[in-house]
């Protein structure tokens, strides 16, 4: 038996698409997700703890059955509650990379990667030859004889990915793939992992709660909160136009719901006060419920009210906190509306800013974006 004929049981390299429209109920929690993932597309699934990310992953992997709806991968139905179809995990053409990698500690790197072929009956020599192709693909050949305990975090992550790829799956699922790494290793591995995922011909889902990981590694984002899809789109669009306060905090924007009350872009904010915005794109007619997004760096702080030549948006507030974030200071201001403002440490010192100080904030209308507030369709 040659390496190319190792009986993995799946059509290697098939360019399948993923289609799912499911409801999964577990105790008091309900997950509802409908989406499609194209062949070669990397979908990032983002959300806070308890949002349903793990439940979605378990359903796709075959570790939990859907309550209603279906999951299709290419021409194969993996789960269909109405038809009573359910393909168990071990028979699904799915590669799964766990958060903690779960490498077999007693096996070498080579034999970890060869495990899929061995588990399907291949001889050890054939399985190892099959594994060698993926060791070479992920630059692991020099580590082939090491045990997992002898690997760095980044090396272990690559071995886990190689083991998943060696099963030649039609779909890849990655659960918090960089969470086990320290900050320095995460930076080094992130771009490398993105390159490997770009070479995979099938759909890829990356489950994460890390916004930078989601923005850098994916083609499209799907954001879950409390079991529901609250936003989906390209990373750039999600980052520029967050739909919820959770997403806004992740991408570092001030977000205010409000009502468009004038054609010049004046928005009455639900939390009090108003802002004049310049839409980056035309707002559809009839859209009165809107969201307003402002970058913290687009807001200026003054110790006296700016004169009339200043930006159109000017409001008063009181500093409630200051926090050093890398090379900037995040200033928390309570007002109408509340705001987070990013300043340089030098600016904070020059203005003698401190908690309790009353200040004035200003922002140009061109730096304030407004867009319709409408939930995504299922």
Question: How would you explain this protein's 3D organization?
Answer:
With 378 residues, this protein is an alpha+beta fold. It has 2 domains: 3-239, P-loop containing nucleotide triphosphate hydrolases (Rossmann fold); 254-373, Beta Barrel (OB fold (Dihydrolipoamide Acetyltransferase, E2P)). It has helices spanning 53-61, 109-113, 115-119, 124-137, 153-166, 183-198, 211-217, 235-240, 245-251, 345-351; strands at residues 18-26, 29-37, 42-46, 68-73, 76-80, 85-86, 94-97, 171-175, 204-208, 220-225, 228-233, 254-260, 266-269, 274-276, 289-294, 300-302, 313-325, 328-335, 339-343, 358-363, 368-372. The strands form 4 sheets. The chain has a 6-stranded mixed β-sheet with strand order 7-8-9-3-10-11, sandwiched between helices. It has a 5-stranded antiparallel β-sheet with strand order 2-1-4-5-6, with helices on one face. The protein has a 5-stranded antiparallel β-sheet with strand order 14-13-12-15-21. α4 (124-137) crosses α5 (153-166). The model is unreliable at 1-13 (pLDDT under 50).
């Amino acid at each position: 038996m040659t390496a190319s004929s190792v009986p993995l049981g799946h059509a290697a390299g098939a360019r399948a698409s993923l289609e799912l429209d499911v409801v999964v109920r577990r105790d008091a929690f309900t997950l509802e997700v409908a989406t499609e993932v194209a062949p070669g597309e990397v979908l990032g699934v983002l959300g806070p703890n308890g949002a349903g990310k793990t439940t979605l992953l378990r359903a796709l992997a075959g570790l939990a059955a859907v309550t209603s709806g279906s999951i299709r991968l290419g021409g194969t139905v993996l789960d269909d509650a109405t038809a009573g179809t359910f393909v168990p995990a071990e028979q699904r053409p799915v590669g799964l990379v766990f958060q903690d990698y779960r490498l077999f500690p007693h096996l070498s790197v080579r034999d970890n990667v060869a495990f899929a072929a061995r588990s399907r009956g291949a001889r050890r020599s054939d399985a190892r030859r099959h594994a060698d192709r993926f060791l070479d693909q992920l630059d692991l050949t020099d580590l082939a004889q090491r045990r997992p305990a002898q690997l760095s975090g980044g090396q272990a992550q690559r071995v886990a990915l190689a083991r998943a790829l060696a099963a030649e799956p039609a779909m890849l699922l990655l659960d918090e793939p960089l969470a086990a790494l320290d900050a320095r290793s995460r930076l080094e591995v992130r771009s490398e992992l993105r390159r490997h995922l770009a070479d995979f011909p099938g759909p890829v889902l990356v489950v994460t709660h890390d916004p930078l990981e989601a923005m850098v590694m994916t083609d499209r984002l799907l954001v879950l909160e409390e079991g529901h899809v609250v936003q989906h789109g390209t990373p750039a669009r999600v980052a520029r136009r967050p739909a919820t306060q959770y997403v806004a905090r992740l991408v570092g924007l001030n977000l205010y719901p409000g009502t468009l009350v004038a054609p010049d872009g004046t928005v009455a904010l639900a939390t009090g006060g108003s802002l004049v915005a310049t839409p980056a794109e035309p707002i559809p007619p009839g859209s009165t419920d809107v969201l307003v997004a402002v970058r913290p760096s687009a807001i200026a702080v003054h110790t006296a009210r700016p004169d009339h030549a200043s930006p159109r948006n000017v409001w008063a507030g009181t500093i409630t906190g200051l926090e050093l974030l890398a090379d900037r200071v995040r200033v928390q201001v309570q007002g109408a509306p509340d705001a987070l403002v990013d300043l340089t440490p030098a600016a904070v010192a020059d203005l003698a800013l401190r908690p309790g100080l009353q200040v004035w904030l200003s922002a140009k209308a061109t730096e304030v974006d407004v867009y319709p507030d409408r939930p995504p369709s299922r």
